[in-house]
Amino acid sequence: MDLLFPLLILALLVPMFLGIRRQKKEMAKTAALQDSLQIGDRVVTTAGLYGIIEELEDDTVDLRIAPGVITTWSRLVIREVVVDIDDEEYEELDGSEVSAQEQAEDSRPSPDKN
After folding, report:
1. What is residue 112's three-state secondary structure?
2. What GO cellular component term, any one, is given (predicted)?
3. pLDDT, the chain, mean
4. How far apart, in whole angstroms, are the C-alpha atoms of residue 3 and residue 5?
5. How many CB atoms are closer than 10 A to CB 20?
């Protein structure tokens, strides 16, 4: 009975400590992303809006979301930078997907026409 109270305190403090530690890592990751933003980067906001950075200021970022449409957002809403793949890589991916699809179609039995 004497050990119950210290074990209860320990059981409550350990998950709290681990949660705080994980939150600090995520905040550091977000701060690094905010510092690495550059004009011309393609980004996604927390609202799911894709855009290209046109101008950066201390607290705001101007995103081009369509030709001639530029909106101003807080830098904090930038969730991630979208990495575009090269045309050659896209063709390789596209070719492998098609060949896999063709293989799947070839392995299916053909329906009999009566």
Report:
1. coil
2. plasma membrane
3. 80
4. 6
5. 10
